[in-house]
Amino acid sequence: xxxxxxxxxxxxxxxxxxxxxxxxxxxxxxxxxxxxxxxxxxxxxxxxxxxxxxxxxxxxxxxxxxxxxxxxxxxxxxxxxxxxxxxxxxxxxxxxxxxxxxxxxxxxxxxxxxxxxxxxxxxxxxxxxxxxxxxxxxxxxxxxxxxxxxxxxxxxxxxxxxxxxxxxxxxxxxxxxxxxxxxxxxxxxxxxxxxxxxxxxxxxxxxxxxxxxxxxxxxxxxxxxxxxxxxxxxxxxxxxxxxxxxxxxxxxxxxxxxxxxxxxxxxxxxxxxxxxxxxxxxxxxxxxxxxxxxxxxxxxxxxxxxxxxxxxxxxxxxxxxxxxxxxxxxxxxxxxxxxxxxxxxxxxxxxxxxxxxxxxxxxxxxxxxxxxxxxxxxxxxxxxxxxxxxxxxxxxxxxxxxxxxxxxxxxxxxxxxxxxxxxxxxxxxxxxxxxxxxxxxxxxxxxxxxxxxxxxxxxxxxxxxxxxxxxxxxxxxxxxxxxxxxxxxxxxxxxxxxxxxxxxxxxxxxxxxxxxxxxxxxxxxxxxxxxxxxxxxxxxxxxxxxxxxxxxxxxxxxxxxxxxxxxxxxxxxxxxxxxxxxxxxxxxxxxxxxxxxxxxxxxxxxxxxxxxxxxxxxxxxxxxxxxxxxxxxxxxxxxxxxxxxxxxxxxxxxxxxxxxxxxxxxxxxxxxxxxxxxxxxxxxxxxxxxxxxxxxxxxxxxxxxxxxxxxxxxxxxxxxxxxxxxxxxxxxxxxxxxxxxxxxxxxxxxxxxxxxxxxxxxxxxxxxxxxxxxxxxxxxxxxxxxxxxxxxxxxxxxxxxxxxxxxxxxxxxxxxxxxxxxxxxxxxxxxxxxxxxxxxxxxxxxxxxxxxxxxxxxxxxxxxxxxxxxxxxxxxxxxxxxxxxxxxxxxxxxxxxxxxxxxxxxxxxxxxxxxxxxxxxxxxxxxxxxxxxxxxxxxxxxxxxxxxxxxxxxxxxxxxxxxxxxxxxxxxxxxxxxxxxxxxxxxxxxxxxxxxxxxxxxxxxxxxxxxxxxxxxxxxxxxxxxxxxxxxxxxxxxxxxxxxxxxxxxxxxxxxxxxxxxxxxxxxxxxxxxxxxxxxxxxxxxxxxxxxxxxxxxxxxxxxxx
Length: 1106
Hints:
- With 1106 residues, the chain is an alpha/beta fold.
- It is built from 38 helices and 28 strands.
- Strands 8-9-7-10-17-6-18 form a seven-stranded parallel beta sheet, with helices on both faces. Strands 19, 20, 21, 22, 23, 24 and 25 form a seven-stranded parallel beta sheet that branches.
- Strand 26 and strand 27 form a beta hairpin.
């Protein structure tokens, strides 16, 4: 494939060269505009940005005016007409998006040149003086970097960012202009470390922010989001664009809503996603914080859209009987089997080793030794003694040869290998399976020998059908069998997850224990993933294994994958130093193209071929020796590891050698930026995970550059080539010298699982002794092929997760759209019309074609409070569509009369209240009943008075739709959680769980929609006001904004109907870390306001703080 690619490259040219050629004409236009703009005064620069805003506004003015006119018409239109009006509005909004992209393309050269010149003015001048505007005065009240002097505003070129004062010293290079164009076009710009990705982003961010539709800059952690908002903010604010960061404000607060309404909004990927979920759980429009998802740039796009995308975002709450889990109860049985297997495998391995190392062993003995070696490998593949033995000469080849023999004829004889074991582990498939011997062993002491075995439901049901039992007894037996299956299914699932926890998840590798809690370590970045839990009970299984508190089971209230969240944006772009290896995934899932941006200065870092050792011990000794030599030479060393365990091992070895060093791993992640920033100083040794410190440049002193620059040492090849490239990229920024060297052993997980047998074969043939090393380009390429296999496997896992979430996403989009319509009331009547028609159609289809006219008529009376407009004969003779139309017409007429009646009944009371207490009351509470329940409907008093009571009916519709949808959706999510878990058992029946999940979830959703439609329509058709006196109408209490950050999964009961959000766990942010001390502008209450108004601060910009 590589040869084919190189041939195609020679014929058609490299993709990167073609990409650069395409944008060259735009770069030339930017340079032309720059020569014009650089001659403008400071006020002239701001005048230029005003001119660009006006061009954009004028281009879409006609469409925006038309939309405003149509929305006003929709308010007054009949219910049947409003649907057509909203279709026109949707088309106009799509046209606006198209026109915006056209006009932005036209003004791009001027906008980019304007940003570049603004950056240059701040570099060349300590103070930039302009005519003061209101926006400058607002900023001066809170920022030391803006000072008002009469009618002038002075902008300093130094300000606070990330807790430190920075002096602005950056101007865009030409290659950075290329990166900006790529980002504006909605692609991924791959730029090497130190090429200034944060500065590059200012170009497309400024350009797209001119539309005032919101630009989101997404970062991997809250330190970077806060730092970058403060660091780059003044460039935008100088031109009157507002900037904010969501991570500075509490979730669901007015301050966070304001942050989203800013022209430019910074934040972390998780918080953007969680805010979307919170918005779709809100029960008032005032609680919504996000607006339309227009344009986003994702920093470190590979981390966010690949690594973090493996785990869905979930807001959850407690379920009834959530404490009744079986993990603690079953732990003892699993532990017993695990210990028995460990003892058995140890003995098998000793026998295998004896036979395989025996001098003059017969062919039968060698064959038996190979069988025992394979059996030990199937039983406990992570056994350290086994891994070490397999690195010895010829052993890996014997294992593979034996496995190939028993895998012949579709694993026909594999049972000979596995029957003596208690369970079988398949590391590649991440699965554990009990053997018959294991089931028998674990079931000892139970009366039921199949206590841990799922019954074959098909066969058992067939036996019952042919048993000759009477119908009543047959139903009873079927129920008993179903109940037995349900109980055993939960038990088997618990056992399987416990086996995985004991055999496949290692402490200090996959997870750490902090504050008596299991914290997941991100295998790509080495950071702790706060708030994340393994799904399907695996987290509880690990908690039981480690004897920490097993958390109660929770129910999902809202969930989304990051893939589906970011696919909602009108335009999405990303930037990183390592995306090319994942280009296929970015295109398949997000339709994002990766464009490699050339470096400003040539990379002179030396990347050496991998050094391959037989054992880990030899490898680590060689690493320590190399660190000592580099340290003596005065070079800083950054050592990359793949786990906490290895970083601590190397730390102990360095202490023995007397080498001072810093350790950065999941246990010490709070000091990340500080440690990485120091990593370039003379003689500094830093041990870190492969992707630590993203977003923080390692800058070198002149002495270090002369000594040879930063030395990168990789202690293991990561599963992903991208992560290795990230580690290498820490050295060699902006033409700095440096080197990188990876150390590999045959015992490493990657080599053990996916490494070619050819490598071990070559080492055996060369007769390498302990401590000797092999280094060749062929070896490095072989390792990269192994990495490609893992990448393909990981992509398959992520795509599978997305396929499951796509099913949920189809439902989520329907529900969230209906909720939003209900919240704002704009398209609510159209939705109600469709609900009414669907309800009537479903009722007609349910009863048509049978002699059930009386039942049909009774259902109409019971649900809709109307009689059938067709008689018995017409019901039989007419087709369902005709009957549906007639019933629907009668229903609409009845509903319109109902609306009119409620309005007429309520208006005299509303009129009385408005005229007597209108100056006191803003909102009122009016009770409306459907005969079963009384709903307290809150509506605006003035609106209800002005439209003669119609506002009350609209509020009634809104609250009934919201309440009904939320109750049904919560139940649907619980059903979907259970379904996702139960369909996994389909693999035992040779069926695809995903297909069954799609089919069953469609049926569940269909049933939910029918129920929601019926409940909403029935409630609305029966509504009436049970009061007559104005004294019974009371003022609605001032509504408090719901602070969802307070909710935790502590209550054992489900949220009640009045407050469906009660008990939601949305505590998604990390615990507060110690932050650098920052000195914000402090103004006394009675001091003059810094905005220059002449008023006291408390009477001007400080008024909101009173």
